[in-house]
Request: fold
Amino acid sequence: MSGTKKLAVLPGDGIGPEVVAEALKVIRRTEQLFGFRIETEQALFGGIAIDEKGTPLPQETLGLCRSADAVLLGAVGGPKWDSNPAELRPETGLLGLRKALGLYANIRPANVFDCLIDASTIKREVLEGTDLIVVRELTGGIYFGEKGRRDSEDGQVAYDTCVYSVKEIERIVRTAFEVARKRRKKLASVDKANVLETSRLWRETVIRVAKDYPDVELEHVLVDNCAMQLLRRPASFDVIVTENMFGDILSDEAAMLTGSIGMLASASLGEGSIGLYEPVHGSAPDIAGQGLANPLATIMSVALMYRLTFGFAEGADAIERAVKEVLDAGHRTRDIARAGERYVGTSEMGDLVVAALRK
Reply:
């Protein structure tokens, strides 16, 4: 990795600042080991930004992110802001940031570590060999469609509109085909084409784009069936591509195959070089400030950042090896510990990964 990279750091709410602090420890250690430099600057985002700036995405935060090479995010949200109007919800800031940076592709790996296979509620024989990636479209669909309420003779009516264009579908599908081409060359396209018109357009576009990737095996899976098959035969999936809301739900389901949502990293990418990296888990306000959060998803998000945005595979490999070594040694945070088993806190887990890092 050549030159100094600029990283915008958005700790956010709840456990966000705690897990980000451990990821920053890992970044500083890799700087020492490999001799590169990452310049970091923190900014307000989410609920804390609402409290201090009156908006979940302040202009200065957006400006910092636009000028950065990558963004590292902790988590946003909490019950404190749940009753706020839509424009003052922390999650609205996240949707706005993705849209402003043009981040349309969410990459969520779900890899079951052998040493954690018994941490899942799924049987060992079902989980063995599970190593999949969910590629989720991020900037279209029902989350961004027209929404509102109106009065009717039956009382108030609410509506959310799901809209997709061929361009939006094609670019995310091509991203997924490229990811599959570098893995086991299997792609499952998930839709609800038996009911939804947007899904029928989705499937038509996937079939057309697939002609450019004859080396990738394609299957079409209805979303309800995919949800079932993820629990029945998870190891048979390689790459899953789907629209925004389906991807949100399925990637969280896939997270639980690993034993804990605290284990899953994610990357949000666009057509430019910038990427946003964050753990899949939320802000977990019930354990915030107690040192109980699992920082591994955030630490592995740094590995994704090194590999996908900075082009620094050696650093990414070192982080992933260190995490595996720590887990293989039996160290666990509370979310992945067995009943009665000793577990370590957030900061101690970060220190263990830092100690295990080497070239």
